[in-house]
Amino acid sequence: MEKPQVVTIGISGPSCSGKTTLALLLKKLLENVITINLDEFYKPDSQIPKDETTGLANWESPEALDFDSLNKAINRARSDPLSLLAEPHKLLQNNHHGSDLLSKQDFAHLFDSLDALKDIVFIIVEGFLLFYDEKVCANLDTMFFCNASRQVLKQRRESRPGYVTLEGYWVDPPGYFDQLVWPQFLKWNQHILDETKRDPRILVISTDATSAQDMASFAVHTIEHQHTKK
């Protein structure tokens, strides 16, 4: 069988910005989808770096992640997408928000608009530090960066019970957002937050008050515009 056209979509942004929700919405809307979640590429719990100031495990640092293995997974998906499509469905890790946020009418409208893309295999790569690694960015065709205000992100993060890790389960200790999550987000994403340094391929989606319908619609129309054969 002839290898299909493959398009890789990267979705990044701070913790609780809506990136997993967007990934799940696109997974439902697009015909052939392979999902890769950066959460699957955390190092073992014992190798997570400690923050020098607080002494807490720093899950927000690039040093906590195995980007080499992530890139290998992306390359494998790009080179042999059909075999991965045939594998059993795998849920995205640490999904705290469902994607059942579109009305049947909105879903049908967006789904029908993507008919021209039905033969493309989409690889959706999602994760909070996805655009930190240059090799990962070079592997992405379309890039969305979900963002929200500090207040909204903090409220969402502190409402979550915890996170599945490679070796167990992590629950944020009191003050973790202010001490690590927010400062680390600012530290490692300056090349995106500063518009003068941002890769022009990265499209920012503010999710403070953006509905699922608007978020999905923006992403769908972007993908349609970029990847429909003229």
Automatic annotation (TrEMBL):
Pfam families, alphabetized: PRK
Transmembrane segments: none
GO MF term list: ATP binding; kinase activity
Keywords carried by this UniProt record: Kinase, Transferase
Domain annotation Phosphoribulokinase/uridine kinase: ranges: 9-156
Protein name as it appears in the record: Ribosylnicotinamide kinase
Annotated organism of origin: Rhizopus stolonifer
Species lineage: Eukaryota, Fungi, Fungi incertae sedis, Mucoromycota, Mucoromycotina
